[in-house]
Specification:
Shape: globular
Helix content: over 70%
Number of helices: 6
Radius of gyration: 18 Å
Strand order of the largest sheet: 1-2
Distance between the termini: 39 Å
Length: 188
């Protein structure tokens, strides 16, 4: 179904991404822009969990929703990473690793689905851990200050985004290993 409550939430997350980027063009103090962007990111990230929960609870799961949800996540993460690179809060190498992996694994999953082997590259716990670490690192880097006067978010965010880059490579290797038997079988 195209317009279920969970699917509309996912669409809203995609449409709202330019608002997150646009915050950094507002004429206001940097600390206020950082706080607004951080809150927006956290709300958007929370809707990822909420739309899945509601889809199951309301029995509104759909193949379109299953397709759109990870696309929205990738848009949110990639847009945020590009903003962070632009603000010099994240290394371009980290962004290349994460964005490159998302493109590669999306293409791999599409190809595996076309050949009827999608289950071999189904979402794994390692991918979920990678996403969780990213969803914690990005708001820390967006905030760019001391949280509660104690937590140095740029330091924690930098460590976490590099950890997520390592998990990104690890999960990509995992998915490629799962796909290799099918790739080899088709290459003959």
């Amino acid at each position: 179904m195209f317009l279920t409550i969970p699917t509309v939430m996912t669409w809203t997350r995609i449409v709202a991404i330019p608002l997150l980027v646009g915050v950094f063009y507002l004429n206001m103090p940097a600390a206020e822009r950082n706080l607004i962007a951080t809150v927006m990111f956290i709300v958007f990230a929370a809707t990822d969990w909420l739309d899945g929960f509601l889809a199951r609870k309301l029995n509104q799961t759909s193949s379109f929703g299953a397709f759109l949800d990870p696309v929205a996540d990738k848009f949110l993460v990639c847009a945020s990473l590009l903003v962070l690179v632009h603000l010099q809060r994240a290394d371009v190498f980290v962004a290349l690793i994460i964005i490159g992996r998302e493109i590669a694994i999306s293409a791999l999953r599409e190809w595996m689905a076309q050949i009827g082997a999608a289950k071999s590259v189904a979402v794994h716990m390692l991918g979920k851990v990678k996403t969780t670490v990213q969803m914690i690192a990005i708001p820390f880097l967006l905030y760019d200050g001391r949280l509660f006067g104690v937590i140095n978010t740029p330091v924690w965010g930098t460590w976490l985004i590099w950890l997520s880059a390592i998990l990104t490579v690890w999960s990509m290797v995992y998915y490629l290993q799962k796909a290799i038997p099918e790739i080899r079988a088709r290459a003959k």
